[in-house]
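Lecture notes, unit on protein representations.

Consider one protein chain, 241 amino acids long.
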Amino acid sequence: MSIVIASVIPNILGLNGSSANAEILAQYLRHAGHDASVVAVSAPEMAPPSVDVLCIGTGSGSSVGPAATALIPLARAIGKWRDAGAWVCAVGTGWDLLGQSVVTSQGDTLPGAGIFASRADHRGERFSGEVYGHDHQDRPSAGYVNQAGHVVLGAGEQPLVTVSSPESHPASDGVAGEKLLATRFGGPALALNPHWAQDIAESVVTEVGGEFHRSDFHDRVEHHAARARELIRARLGVTAG
């Protein structure tokens, strides 16, 4: 049985390597012995009847309007996938647009898809730089963030990462929920934090009745990711431990 990963509007939302998360996850699954395919979905006629994971990336400030417009005709397919139990892995602008609403930098309010309970506001200062912290399972996590404004989580939503540095970044990032993962970490996020790819992959494989078998590939990926995160930690002056 092939595991299907939908990469949603990657032609608009692929900034800072964020659309690559779909292929990273597919490789993670393939090296565990499972067939996995990535389908780019930018219009309803491109949407498969069912998917196991929906991945959506981030974009520039000018991409918010076009991305919101492109998502409207995909709302039915996205809702169907989610109702059937699909995972959602969202980054930056994609996360914002899958939330309840987005206030653009010009002050216009755009309705979101309602997958997340969070609300985004792109007004305010832009943060651009490396970020380091520990996720909801106390695992070192890092990424590059380039985003304006802020996100307010909905009632009951748990942050994905508690941020250690820099102080100019909010104290937390993202959402970790039931088959939901959202972050503003780029890099792309799953390359620097393959433990998140492992979480999604194991859950998906279990859902289809299989088993996830780690290989040398997964160990090598984690080794290189850990070294990269350590370099970020050191550059930010975070004490090890």
